[in-house]
What we know:
Layout: H1 16-34, E1 39-43, E2 49-53, E3 77-79, E4 82-88, H2 105-115, H3 117-137, E5 143-152, H4 160-167, E6 181-194, H5 198-264, H6 270-304, E7 320-326, H7 330-340, H8 342-362, E8 368-383, E9 388-401, H9 409-475, H10 481-516
Antiparallel strand pairs: 1-2, 3-4, 4-7, 5-6, 6-8, 8-9
Amino acid sequence: MYIITFGFEKLSADGEGQLMGRYMKILLAAAVLAIPAVSWSEPADDGAMVETEIVPVNDNDMEPAQADDAQPTQPALTGGALRVEAVQAGFMQQAADTPQDALTLQQCINMALESNLRIGAATEKLAEMDAAIDEAATARRPTLTGQASYTRLVPQPSNPMADLAAMVPNLPSLNSNLSGNIYNVGLNLNHLLYTGGRVQNAQRIAEQSRVAGEWQQKTVVREIRRDVTKAYYQALAVELSVIALDSAVSLMEQLVRDISNAVEVGVRGEYDLLQAQVQLINQRFARQQAATGAAAARDYLAMLIGLPVNTPIVLVRSMETPEALNLPGIESMQSQARSISTDLKALEEQTKILEISMEITRAANLPTVFAAAGYSGGQSAGGDAGNFTWNNQGTLTLGLQWDIYDGGRVNHRLRQTQSQMRQLELNMENLRIGLDLMVRNSAASLEDAFEGIDVGRRSVEQTRRSYEISYDKYQEGMLLSFELLNAQNQYLQAGISYYASLSNFYSRLADLDFLVNE
């Protein structure tokens, strides 16, 4: 945390310059804390260029931070065909100020890979496809089916022999009672012997679908990695902007108090106080908007890495400033994008699936040979429930089924599948062209974003110099206070824009990396 202490002493009219001089030095220090530590060249007395650097104030002893205390430069970003040489940007918060539980970009990516819901759903889809492969394999095995039934005849059947015995005395007893209860059981065993390859090809389709699912899952993983990277830098840029605005608001509050005291002693006009108060209101509102944006950015990042929304997230306040951008040729990156595109590979698997489907369709003109065995048993029509006769029966079957005429159904299916193949080939070619266009646009956007960092850096330099000139003119009485405040605000906005340019650069880099690197 940066601590700035100063007070107000009642001054005479001649002391106003001393008051504002002290305030402006503090304001310049605050702007330094709110803007990245960038280097620029200033002309020396002899016309030569000398390097100047803004260095943040150390929290411990209020002395300039030493090189030994600075955060070490992170390694240059590398990834396949891309390489960005970068140097560490000196933000107002040093590594020592970052809590130990602060998350780095790699930690966020690892958390997303472990617990992101989209990745979880894609992984579960693979489990579903594994089950589909096992199900397709069962078609090559025999099936055993059992059945049992009980039937009761309503009304009960009449027994003519019992009626005859009642009519004729001393008639011998005949066991011819009929029963309304009928029992049946049965077992059937069926096994396909030949299907023209339909069963095997159905299993191959399930296996190819599983491979396509793997490519789709890889696509989701790469998309999540890209989205987390972009969300991380966006959240970091907004968070640093909030810190910069906090510093500006704190100093503006102190300025309002000092001008108010100066108005009381008659060394400043009320107009200056009103201008400072309006500036303070505007900065407070800007800070509120930035805080709202920071909360939204953190919530989005939390969702991506598998944490509940509203979970407090602390990020490592570190962002490298690229000093060189070396990209391969456009054609080389376009070729790389085509070769590693998981979407293209998934479509290639779909092509193989359609080829197998055509084989299955053609096999519909071939016969199907099957074997079957059956057993059935049941109560005969005579007898009662307590003493009935059981009949047993078995069958063995070797069958041949062949569709001799289907009205052209197979040919129509083949035409449909062939049309689907052509559609898929056209979609694949369209995707290749789209990849070429996206690589070209992403590379151009990345180069623009890199140039934007340099523009932002120059803007920081120019607004700083404008601020210093305004300060000198204000001391000489040649500039009004609101003009000086505007110069200070421009300096602040240049720093915030610089954060945004860094975030935009790494977002564009993540887009291009997604296209050309696995």
